[in-house]
């Protein structure tokens, strides 16, 4: 990654800092911007990897028992090629990062890095199709279950949350509040350096005997307790990832409370900052129970305890030799006590991004900003008391289910308030349909579908038939994929000029947006039909065995075709992303004519140490677009030097 | 709307299912109205307020309180759904059958990757089982045939036979990991959790059509099935059973054959008289009696 390298040297000198050594500047950096980019690049890699796991699953679902095409040959390729490619990649990358290459040599080095990276990535995916997992390229049930568990784990914990919080939060939040950095830079570095090993542990677990975890991303014991050793790796990985999130959340909270610029009262915070702040509280309070649960499950697996194991279990005809007396439901409670707030961790920062982009591209203030802030805080509180709506079918009586159904209906209200405010914000705007805005706009109906389809799942009686069917898969993917991930794309296109000083191509952006929007709906919409038919999730053959699935089975091939279209639709994005780093249109500090500090008060990219050439003093709210009685089109938050 | 959704849903042969389907229909009405309303507004606004048509944005935007009315409307709809439908329907779903209705009791024991059905036999008493007696080939639930009331117990694998129009209480448990017992054509789904025995109450009101009965149905793939809805291991996808709802007389004759077969297989031990309790299953209160909020035992 050559992004931060392009820091204007003059600015660094201007601040009197000497050039830091490479490892300190890019590897063990304490600068929130570099850490944000580290998070972003790593998480985008995992996003692509998790996406590929899904593509393998969708192959098996559409064509059960047929060998996976194209990748088969690479699976058995000699390791020498991999080591060779790694070596070449390393040499070329270091050569490029030193920044002395020019002209044709540089072009060659870029080409080598690109080819080697693509080769290594495809090889990594192909090597999953080993003889133990997919003899002759035919995916085995054991492997399918690994793919399912790891797709969920990677997408949630290694891709989406790190992108929203680790990348956007880290990079943008200090800039938006006018801070020179996060409150605890070393903690910030430690957070990334827990996250990366956590991710590597998860990746490596695919290559241990028995493969990766295969008990679902939910890892319900006893299944997970008796699973192969990949589950132990999963638990170690989770402990690292949770630790990383906890370190990050402490830092975010402190930063927002302590480091806001002068004049930046809470009600002047950009909505994105509010979303990040509430998210940090959710992470801080919800993750420890899961970390504890993970350690208890490790103890069950490694130390012979029985926290989650009752007595008298018989597996494969053998009575299990465990102390017993534990409760599998305890895990579910601890897991969902995290995992429901986690849903809002996945959605609040996404709403924050969408709010920024919408305000900027409607050229008017957000409508109902205060209501949105209060709704966000309320949502945060409520998210801690809805968790058992994931557990209606665990033997729940009337009063407990009434409680959780009621809280679930209550929590839908602030979501509706935020969504409504964003929709109403469009009214009266002067809407610019640039790429970030297209993704932000698409978020609204897509998230709407995701939210609305949560209703029949959140009420226990209608949940009976739909529980654990594809209806659930459709529901939460609408929230997270065309919802949150579209918001992430909006954020990437929106803040890319801030990261690099260059804009991404609009034409390629639109070529990315429209096919993605169509393809992703082809993937997820039919899931509601399959769910209504009663097709269970997590079936290796997509329901071929079942009579009740027969009428809707033909959708499997359709959805898989959608998934492959979605892959193709990402090519313009990947190309655009790398190409624009050096070739994109050069822009000034504030190409979107934005009001918030990261645009209005800092250069693009911001000053390497301290972000701002002058410490900004805030004098007004975050979205003073089209102010009445002013002859300027927008008023930045800090003292206006010029309009 | 319910009929529209039922185009994709399996037939429903249960007494309680119509209510659940109706509620699902109502919810989809609410979803459809909200989505269509929002979408129309959304498209209109995108068109009307595009920068080309509206070069200068309005600082204040919407001044009316219309959105508050919409939000209040949503809250009211949700309260009605919750209070009038969801909570009472769930209360009915978990309420045990009246013992005077003579509910049929069946223990269902999940395992990787099959469903074992345990009928108490004519004496109405489930014999005891012991994990140490489990033999996957001959005695999958570890039934102790020498225990009280066990001799006439009938155990089937992956086949659940029920009489029509008689309340059924399944006592659901599992030998190994979590499973979820699902009867799509009966709108029944319940997790089976190790260490717990969870009662499931319903009443079939429709007999399984001839062509949907096992084994005749297998070729045409139109069986009434038992599905496992919770990931339980690598054979989860094929953890499939069959269930058949018979006329009462047919069920009785099927049960009679099964009982005769087990009694022949396990002849009465000499001189030990096992006092057969009355047909009413008094000993089973722990299974379907008072039922607290988390039906763990």
List the helices and strands and how they pair.
The complex is a heterodimer of chains A (643) and B (297).
Chain A: H1 9-14, H2 22-27, H3 32-62, H4 72-75, H5 79-97, H6 103-127, H7 141-176, H8 185-204, H9 230-258, H10 271-302, E1 314-315, E2 318-319, H11 328-362, H12 369-382, H13 398-425, H14 435-452, H15 455-458, H16 460-466, H17 470-500, E3 502-503, H18 506-532, H19 555-583, E4 585-586, H20 597-600
Antiparallel strand pairs in A: 1-2, 3-4
Helix pairs in contact in A: 3-7, 3-8, 3-19, 5-6, 7-8, 7-9, 7-10, 7-11, 7-17, 8-9, 9-10, 10-11, 10-12, 11-13, 11-14, 11-17, 12-13, 14-17, 14-18, 17-18, 18-19
Chain B: H1 2-6, H2 17-48, H3 66-94, E1 104-111, E2 114-119, E3 154-157, E4 159-163, E5 168-174, E6 179-183, E7 188-192, E8 198-202, H4 217-220, E9 225-228, E10 241-246, H5 248-265, H6 285-288
Parallel strand pairs in B: 1-5, 4-10
Antiparallel strand pairs in B: 1-2, 2-3, 5-8, 6-7, 6-9, 9-10
Helix pairs in contact in B: 2-3
Can you describe what's shown?
The complex is a heterodimer of chains A (643) and B (297). Chain A is mainly alpha-helical. Chain A has 20 helices and 4 strands. Chain A has helices at 9-14, 22-27, 32-62, 72-75, 79-97, 103-127, 141-176, 185-204, 230-258, 271-302, 328-362, 369-382, 398-425, 435-452, 455-458, 460-466, 470-500, 506-532, 555-583, 597-600, and strands at residues 314-315, 318-319, 502-503, 585-586. In chain A, the strands form 2 sheets. Chain A has a two-stranded antiparallel sheet. Chain A has a two-stranded antiparallel sheet with strand order 3-4. In chain A, a hairpin with a 2-residue loop joins strand 1 (314-315) and strand 2 (318-319). The longest helix of chain A is centred in the first third of the chain and has 36 residues, at 141-176. In chain A, 59% of the residues are buried. Chain B is of the alpha+beta class and 297 residues long. Chain B has helices at residues 2-6, 17-48, 66-94, 217-220, 248-265, 285-288, and strands at residues 104-111, 114-119, 154-157, 159-163, 168-174, 179-183, 188-192, 198-202, 225-228, 241-246. A 5-stranded mixed beta sheet of chain B has the order 3-2-1-5-8. A 5-stranded mixed beta sheet of chain B has the order 4-10-9-6-7. The radius of gyration of chain B is 26 Å and the shape is elongated. The chains are: A mainly alpha (643), B alpha+beta (297). The interface between A and B is large, with 103 and 102 residues.
